[in-house]
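job 3f2a | input accepted
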Amino acid sequence: MPKKILLQNPRIIKAFNRVRNFYLIGPYTTTNHCVMPIYVDIRAVYSDPKSMKVITRELVKFIKKSKIKFNFILGGATAGIPIATTVGYALGVPTGYVRKAPKGGGTNRTVEGSFKKGAKALLIDDALGQGAGKLDFLNNIRRSGFKIDTLMVVSSRGYQNPEYFKWFAPAKVNFISFCDLTGLIKNAVKDKIITPEAGQLLSYYNQDAAGWNQDKKKWQEFLNYKKQKRHESVSGV
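job 3f2a | predicted structure (237 res):
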């Protein structure tokens, strides 16, 4: 039975929350057509070398301690590529990336990099929403002739919703996440990076991503928040 390891790594959480423009006042619509009142820009961390060093160090530490067996690392295109690359180079391990679909030209491969057929990959991506994209990555890795039994993400939307994790057992992959939105919100409010009001709005989204904005009371709460000229927090959110 595949393992599911859901962590709240305090150093990674703080590394995210120190990033400039990590929280943005919405509304923003996600690729899953959900409305976010406050956008959490996970990819903004790639512009912050200090935070990237912390995240890389924590992933490397976990990989070494857990003795995960693999021959090479793949980043999920495109957002997983930077962190997979820094982790791979820190470990001295060959690194490449996997696409959700063939490029449509050149070699038309979904897995980029020079690796021996039958070798085992470790897949690293930036974040987990509902898992559909991760299944595409896993299927393409296996179809390309490689083995995989471990997927690692830096952050997940939420640990409290079992619907987000139904896919990983049938996919026959161990899943590891280093923090989730609940952990990020809690720390951001505590350190006054965002206001308690912004934290509450993000919690509404976290609890019901697809439907929170259909609740008239919650939506009006967001509109009232958005009208405020000033938010007393480090980020101004």
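job 3f2a | Strands lie at 4-6, 23-29, 35-40, 72-76, 95-98, 111-112, 120-128, 147-156, 174-177.
job 3f2a | closed
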